[in-house]
Inverse folding.
C-alpha cells in the first residue's frame, strides 16, 4: 500500500517538517530539577474538589522546584463545552490561591501556546499524517450503529469491549476498499494501529504509587475524529511533549488509560513525562466508603465552598492534610506559617483513597477564622455578601464601625480566649443577623410565665450609660422582685425557695433582645444596639406597637 498517497488523500496539504516543531517549542530554560506541571480541565463549567486536589499538588511541585505551572483547556469535545467555563475555572482556582505562571487567559510565556487544544489542530494533524505515512494509523469507516453492535457482541461473549484484534474490521482493509469508501464519501476517523499484546505486562514507575504493572495496550484507539479534531488521548500526548511537561499528576481513574498513553508517546517518538496518579476522594456512607459523587454530594463542587463561604485558607489546609501525610504534624508546629513553606513532596502523597471528612474541614475552618482580626473578618464577610448574600446582608456593612464592634465581640477579640463560633461566611452572617435585623420569632425561655413583669421592670431601670456591673445589679434586683434568686449560690443551695435563678431572668431579656437563648454577652450586645433600639425590641417582645 502507498501510505504516502493515502496520507495525502486523508489529510491533504503541506505541513511543516515534524522536527521544526521541536524548534518552535524548545526545551524550557529552567534550573536543574525544576518541574513543569499543568492543570488541564475540560470547559464543562463544573470544577470539582478533585481538580483542586490535583491543582494544589501540581502547584506545590512546580513552584517548590523553581518550575512552571500552566493552565491548558482541553476543548476537543465541543458537545461538553459551556459558555463562561474557562473563567469559572480561573475564578474558582484564584479563590483558593492557585497561581498559574502561564496558560489560557493568563499570559506568561506564550512560546508554548496556544493553550486551547482546538487552536492547535494543525499540529495534531501533522503528526497524524506522519503516523499514516508510517503505517501506524489508518482510516476507520465504522458507523456508530456498527460500533454499538460490536460492543453488544463482546459483552454477550464476556470479552473485553473495544476496537482491537479480530474486532478491528477496518484495520486490514485493502487499498481498493479504502479508496472505494473514500470515493463514496463515507465519513471516517483515524485510528492508531496498536502494536501491543495484551499478554505482555509493563512495569511502570508511578510518581505517587511507586512501581505498578499494567497490561500492554492493544486497542486501536481513535486519534483523529471525523471533524478533524483529535481525541483527548492523542492531543494530550502532543501537548505535554511540546509544552515540555515533566510531571503529570492526575486522578487514579486515568490509570486505565495509561497503557494507551504510553504507546502513543512511543509511537510519536517522544520522551514520556512522569505520571503520578493520586488517590480518589472517598466519603463514609454508612458502613462503607465510596467515591464522592457529583450527583449525590454537593460538597464535590468547588462552587459549594464559595456559596457557603468557606475560608479559602481553611480548605487549602484541609486538602494539604489529605495530600501529604506529614502536613498535619508540620502545621501543628507552624500554625501561622505561609503554607508555601511546607516541604511538599509527591512521594508523601497517599497511595490509596483519602477519606474526605466535612466535619474535620469545619473544625479547621473554625480554627482558621478565629485567627483573623476584626478587619480581616469584615473584609472576608463583605466579599462573600457582595457575591452570594441577600440585599439585607449586603446592608450590614453600611456601618463599618458597628460591624467591627459586632465581630470583635462575637470573635472574643481582646478576651482571654478567642471564640470559635464561625465556620463559614454564610453561617457567620446568620450568627450575627440579630445585630442588624429585629427578631421575627423568639426561642423559648425558662421564665416565660414572668416575661411581662421582667421586661417591664427592665425597661423602667435600663440606662445605656450603666457599666456591665451596674447593669447586672439591676437585673438581679428584677430577679429578686419576681421570685428568682439574685445570686446563683443561693439558688444552688435551696432551689425549692425560688422560681429560678437570675440566669433565667437574663435569658428572658436575651431572647427579647435577640430572639435567641444563646448569644455572646448581653450587656455588650445592648451597648452595640444602643438604647433606642434595645428599648424598641423589648417593647416589641411585649407586643407593644412602636
Amino acid at each position: 500500500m502507498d501510505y504516502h498517497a493515502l496520507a495525502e488523500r486523508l489529510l491533504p496539504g503541506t505541513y511543516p517538517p515534524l522536527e521544526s516543531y521541536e524548534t518552535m517549542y524548545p526545551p524550557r530554560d529552567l534550573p536543574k530539577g525544576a518541574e513543569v506541571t499543568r492543570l488541564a480541565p475540560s470547559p464543562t463549567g463544573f470544577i470539582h474538589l478533585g481538580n483542586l486536589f490535583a491543582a494544589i499538588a501540581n502547584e506545590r511541585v512546580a513552584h517548590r522546584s523553581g518550575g512552571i505551572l500552566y493552565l491548558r483547556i482541553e476543548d476537543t469535545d465541543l458537545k461538553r463545552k459551556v459558555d463562561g467555563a474557562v473563567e469559572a475555572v480561573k475564578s474558582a482556582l484564584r479563590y483558593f490561591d492557585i497561581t498559574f505562571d502561564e496558560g489560557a487567559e493568563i499570559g506568561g510565556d506564550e512560546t508554548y501556546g496556544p493553550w486551547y487544544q482546538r487552536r492547535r489542530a494543525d499540529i495534531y494533524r501533522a503528526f497524524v499524517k506522519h503516523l499514516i505515512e508510517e503505517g501506524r494509523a489508518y482510516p476507520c469507516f465504522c458507523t456508530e450503529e456498527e460500533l454499538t453492535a460490536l460492543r453488544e457482541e463482546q459483552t454477550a461473549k464476556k470479552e473485553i469491549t473495544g476496537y482491537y484484534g479480530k474486532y478491528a474490521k477496518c484495520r486490514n482493509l485493502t487499498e481498493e476498499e479504502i479508496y472505494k469508501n473514500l470515493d463514496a464519501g463515507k465519513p471516517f476517523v483515524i485510528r492508531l494501529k496498536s502494536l501491543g499484546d495484551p499478554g505482555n505486562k509493563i512495569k511502570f514507575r508511578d510518581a505517587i504509587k511507586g512501581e505498578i504493572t499494567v497490561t500492554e495496550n492493544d486497542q486501536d484507539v481513535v486519534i483523529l475524529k471525523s471533524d478533524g479534531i483529535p481525541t483527548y488521548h492523542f492531543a494530550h500526548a502532543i501537548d505535554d511533549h511540546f509544552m515540555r511537561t515533566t510531571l503529570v499528576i492526575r486522578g487514579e481513574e486515568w490509570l486505565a488509560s495509561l497503557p494507551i498513553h504510553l504507546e502513543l508517546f512511543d509511537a510519536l517518538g517522544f520522551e514520556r513525562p512522569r505520571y503520578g496518579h493520586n488517590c480518589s476522594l472517598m466519603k463514609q456512607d454508612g458502613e462503607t466508603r465510596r467515591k464522592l459523587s457529583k450527583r449525590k454530594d454537593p460538597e464535590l463542587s468547588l462552587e459549594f465552598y464559595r456559596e457557603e463561604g468557606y475560608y479559602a485558607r481553611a480548605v487549602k489546609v484541609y486538602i494539604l492534610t489529605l495530600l501529604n501525610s506529614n502536613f498535619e504534624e508540620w502545621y501543628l508546629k507552624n500554625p501561622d506559617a505561609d503554607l508555601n513553606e511546607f516541604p511538599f513532596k509527591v512521594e508523601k502523597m497517599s497511595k490509596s483513597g483519602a477519606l474526605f471528612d466535612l466535619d474535620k474541614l469545619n473544625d479547621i475552618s473554625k480554627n482558621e477564622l478565629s485567627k483573623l482580626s476584626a478587619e480581616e473578618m469584615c473584609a472576608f464577610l463583605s466579599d462573600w455578601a457582595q457575591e452570594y448574600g441577600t440585599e439585607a446582608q449586603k446592608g450590614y456593612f453600611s456601618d463599618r464601625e458597628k460591624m467591627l464592634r459586632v465581630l470583635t465581640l462575637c470573635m472574643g477579640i481582646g478576651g482571654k480566649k478567642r471564640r470559635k463560633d464561625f465556620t463559614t461566611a454564610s453561617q457567620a452572617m446568620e450568627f450575627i443577623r440579630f445585630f442588624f435585623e429585629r427578631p421575627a420569632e423568639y426561642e423559648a425561655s425558662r421564665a416565660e410565665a414572668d416575661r411581662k413583669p421582667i421586661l417591664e421592670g427592665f425597661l423602667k431601670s435600663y440606662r445605656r450609660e450603666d457599666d456591665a456591673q451596674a447593669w447586672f445589679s439591676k437585673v438581679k434586683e428584677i430577679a429578686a422582685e419576681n421570685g428568682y434568686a439574685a445570686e446563683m449560690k443561693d439558688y444552688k443551695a435551696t432551689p425549692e425557695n425560688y422560681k429560678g435563678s437570675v440566669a433565667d431572668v437574663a435569658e428572658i431579656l436575651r431572647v427579647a433582645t435577640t430572639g435567641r437563648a444563646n448569644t455572646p454577652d448581653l450587656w455588650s450586645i445592648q451597648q452595640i444596639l444602643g438604647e433606642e433600639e434595645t428599648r424598641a425590641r423589648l417593647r416589641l417582645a411585649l407586643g407593644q406597637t412602636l
Remarks:
- The mean pLDDT is 95.
